[in-house]
Amino acid sequence: MWVGLEAEEYDRKYQDKVLVKRIISYFSPYKKAMLLVIIFLTISSLTMAFQPILTSLIITNLETTPEPLYVIFLIVIIFIFNILGWIINYVRQIYSSRVIGSVVLDIRKDAHKSVVNHDLSFFDKNPLGKIVSRINTDSRDFGETVEMSIEVVSSVVVLILLITVMFTVDVVLTFVLLISLPLFFIAALSFRKFARKMTLQGQRALASVNAYTKESFSGIQIAKTFRREKKVYDDFLAVNNQSYRVNLKRAFLLNAIYPTLGLIQGVVTMLLILIGSSFVIDGFVGVGELVLFIQSINLLFFPLLIIASFWPMFQTGMAASERIFALIDTLPAVVQKNNIVPSKLKGEIEFKNLNFQYDKSKKVFDNFSLKVNPGESIALVGHTGAGKSSIAKLIARFYEFQGGDILVDGKSIKEYDLTEYRKHIGIIPQTPFLWADTVENNIKYGFENASEEDVMNALEISGGSEWIKSLPDGLKTNIRERGSLLSMGQRQLVVFARVLLEDPSILILDEATASVDPFTETKIQEALEKTIEDRTSIIIAHRLWTVRHVDRIVVLDHGKIVEEGNHDELMKRKGTYANLYNTYFRHQSLQYIEDMGKSNE
Amino acid sequence: MRINHKIMSAKLKDSKISEFSTGKDPFAKARKKGSSRWILAHILHGSNKWFITIIFFTIILSANLSSITYIIIGETISALLNGMTVILGNYIILLFILGITGPLMRIGSRMLIEILAQRLERDARREFFSNLLGKSQSFHDQMKIGELMARVTDDVRMLNFLISPALSLVVESFTYLFIPIFYIILYYPIQLIIEPIFFSISFLILLRSYSKKIGPITGRLRENFGLMTATLSETLSGIEVVKATVQEEKEMKKYLTNAKNYKKAFIERGKLQAKYLPILVLALVITAGFAHSIVLYNYGLINIGQIIAFLGILGLLRFPTNISMFVFSIFRLAGSSAVRLLELMNKKTEIDENKEGKEKVFKGIIKFDKVEFNYPNSKNPVLKNISFEIQSGQTVAIVGTTGSGKTTLTKLISRLYDVSSGRILIDGRDIREYSLQSLRDQISYIEQDVFLFSTTIFDNISFGRVSSLEEVIKVAEQAQAHDFISELPDEYQSKVGERGVQLSGGERQRIAIARAFLSDPRILILDDSTSAIDSNTEDKIQFAIKNILKNRTTMLITHRLSQIRWADLILVLKNGEIVAKGNHEELLKTSEEYRKIFVKKFDIEEDQLLKGVRE
Ligand SMILES: Nc1ncnc2c1ncn2[C@@H]1O[C@H](COP(=O)(O)OP(=O)(O)O)[C@@H](O)[C@H]1O
Ligand SMILES: Nc1ncnc2c1ncn2[C@@H]1O[C@H](COP(=O)(O)OP(=O)(O)O)[C@@H](O)[C@H]1O
Ligand SMILES: [Mg+2]
Ligand SMILES: [Mg+2]
After folding, report:
1. What is the CATH topology of the domain spanning A426-503?
2. Would you state the pLDDT for residue A6?
């Protein structure tokens, strides 16, 4: 699956015009600086273009009747131009690197913002490695291209000036020189399409390498325990070789253009000398003028060669900007219709005929309805895959639903300002995620201002803070990516403490203590009973003893509610819940254990 | 035993320790000798050395051709001025040939350069990747994935850039720097070499100081780029938490801090490049050369054609001057990239795959002998004085509060980490004497923190062992996973998303169970592997597990009494020590810690439970 260069789902093609307009719009905040850059650029290009003209004047003068003073004067002027050109170019370059640096930063900002604002369905589909490479690497490539383009623009100024002067000198020779231009453009343009395509593929191949690396080393422990490094390595070889092949092809193509243009230059030089010398013999032009032309070939071809030899880069940059804009332009699936800012949520939640699916092929909820009263605590139980976590994710508005509605405090969830709304929701996801940071900062995440005491308190409530002492630096221990230096149970405790600190109006616990031992869990349980007293809470658990005390238990089966009521009612009903509960208890009862013991024999 | 230890410590000294190797590693020695030697070894590896020779040769040749071209142009013009139209034709044909062969040769050499560059990238990446695979778990615990990613892609790519364009341009520019001098000596009054020589010397001096300054700046540029990648990929890994806690702004700020530092370094580099003096020096030198040649013309020492050719040859110096500004920062960058790569590759790792080690089918007798274990960097031992023995086919359950060291203990058996002191024996032999392949092949592990690859379900289940679809379906049925898999759009070919995000927690665990079942191990380790599964489903899985356990040695970490009850031996861990061991009844009677864990939870009064036991 890693080999393959297909576009991402969100990729799109932009017309060059659109792309360029878009790029220009990023430069418009720096209009003044850009104006300076352009002015300085023109001046320094002019100083450059005048040099061959002055040279040719001198040669003409030498050839006819040398006037020493005149020659010295011209040479001094050339010296002055040399120095002036350098200084002006110096200023220009400083400005342009400032502008480019800022533009790249702006693009990164936009891309980051757009990506972070996507809902989770986007991240389900797109490997992180590829997104990261798009935001960072592609924007860098883009910046480099702009730098190159500025050089090119300066060369173009020289080019235009020279051609004008040449026309005044000799029209025929100028035309000889100019026949090379269409040749140039035909050559360059015919490369363009392939170049863009190849470059895109090259970037994708590299992004694949990036993504594959991320995945392999995230799962390195599994590869080790199953002793399957070989498989990981073999798959890597495929990805790596693909990148080699694609990039080599691309390099071949892009490198062919430079010498091809050189070839054109060679032919044109030859023609010029051939025709020019016959002109000199016939007395149409002087040697000095011919020199001007020969010298101009270089000056003329230099910009073209720059364009051509930086063609790979230029194409990389265009392809890169296309990739970034595609990323920026993708709209999240979750869209808010309004931006009501709730000051405080009462915590009434109502699912109204909800339809929801992750994939078209499999409905998770079909016409699902459920109402949770303010301050009520409910438990969601049911088999795995019934849709419990999905409910949690929908309330947090991580996914867009397809039909029906979810009302919170009587208003559609779509009406709220998303960030303000989420501030009132505390959710402990099923898989704990921790940052590669200290324990303390992990707990304070989302609640910067908490003091160390608050942190210790929150930890105390979530099963005790004893274990912190065993860490090398206590609260200040850096626990590495995903908290990998902590045991699973400890990770859950940290997440638990984090959410307690947040003090949300709606609390959602998704198997928050599944990896914690029963003893610690009991302690958390006691604390939890206090915590949930006056707020709406949704608790998802498999260890049914932990949810016996909630106000209402909702039993889910394949996205449908099959039973609801409190523990005693449900037990009396002897339905699914009673069955689940009994199985659960049977597991733990001595009787069951004895039976298992017997069947074991 | 003692002899064996000696052998082992001798081996430890050997720097080639690695958990995984691909057989061939031609650069092992060069890696030890520093970055330039390593890069050189790559450049000269295999057929690469022929490539590089040809490349050098063609570059020098074509530089010569360019100089000759200008001299001929000069001659042509002189011929014109002197009215020698006869040889004019010859000159023009010569120019034509030169105009064509030059570019053609350049096409050839560029292709070769590209092949070399891309090869270097591919090979270095391959070497780096396989080397990382050989590093032990404790190494990977300390690494940030984002940093690894930056190295595998960007740093390795710098080596590519080092060849194309940097190395080829440098060779080219140095030839362009000296060849003109050579031709001037041949064709012109000797004093005309003053200007090019003056330039060459001052150029080299200026370049040196420039490249000294550009080094640290480009280093900073890369470093910040790496940080940007690392922060961003962490943010996106934890995106669910970011959203739930509404910390988008904060994450953005984190990222922007790095991005802004990057911008700063970028601007600084721009400043430094703007100040690049050789360009000015060259312009002045060319003008001076021009003036000089006019003086010579005045004295009749050269003619106009020669002046023009001389100017053309001086103009050739433009190329090395302009290009070296960019090229030298690539050199620096590639150098520091190579250092970054080598730094990781040369990091010692403690576990070796021990290819010559013993291989055998285990009976499955596991013995811990006074095992003590410290994670690298942790100050207190995580496990202390652990001793116990499991007979072949037995099941041992490990219980204990969160963080007491249960998971750690099981990880030691498959040598994800090596014990700090004491020994672990399987079938009477220290596990370090077996080859890693043989050891890990026979141990399956269902980890607490289930990891799935983002490939298909089929690939995930058959990860541990290549198998047919039938076999996969069979184990999926046993793990109670078949039903939900059949409901997925592409059944076994459905992709599960990164880390399996597209599945529910319990579904993930069942895939992991199936994966472990399929590999048919001698020793099975289950680490709280049904924690996210409802009791009905678990009921069914338990019977499957029970079947699987037959004839295998098993270690169970669980808090479900039903599972614990199967155990022949229960170990109670507390703060890394075994505080009690025995069977359920014994422990209920004797161990306070054990009762603490189990009694309260079921709302069964302690007395009642104990009564059941006492009867
Ligand atoms: N991100 C996702 N993409 C696609 N399918 C998903 C995703 N998350 C969960 N599912 C599917 O939706 C169903 C409900 O999952 P979930 O709500 O996580 O169940 P549970 O009740 O165990 O918490 C499952 O069949 C699962 O495979
Ligand atoms: N990779 C690691 N590096 C350093 N310390 C670790 C690592 N993994 C776990 N620990 C520490 O070791 C102790 C035992 O962890 P673990 O064996 O996972 O406990 P549990 O009994 O819950 O499975 C914990 O205090 C934890 O913080
Ligand atoms: Mg779930
Ligand atoms: Mg554990």
Report:
1. Rossmann fold (3.40.50)
2. 67
